[in-house]
Amino acid sequence: MDFIRFINDLKMSSDRDAQALAASYGVRLSIEEIRALRPLLDDISLHWLFTGVPPEFVEKVKRAVGERKGEELFQYYLDSLK
After folding, report:
1. What digits encode the pLDDT tens for the residues 42-73?
2. Based on the structure, what is the number of domains in the chain?
3. pTM higher than 0.85
4. Range of 69's domain?
């Protein structure tokens, strides 16, 4: 998965299009989860490729979409780095 493209497309898509886009990558998100995640997308930094994702951000994502889904999203990110 090209995670950077995925994030950018999520930011620019309508809720329904973002849901379909996420599903095309195997990520199941509800409209509510997309709306909760969207404000966090602007906080993502390319520096994290070198420094790692701050634990505070991971916690924000988990609060937005739940523990299990937050772990799934973080795993998709890690898999995209391989």
Report:
1. 898 888 878 889 999 999 999 999 999 999 88
2. 1
3. no
4. 3-80
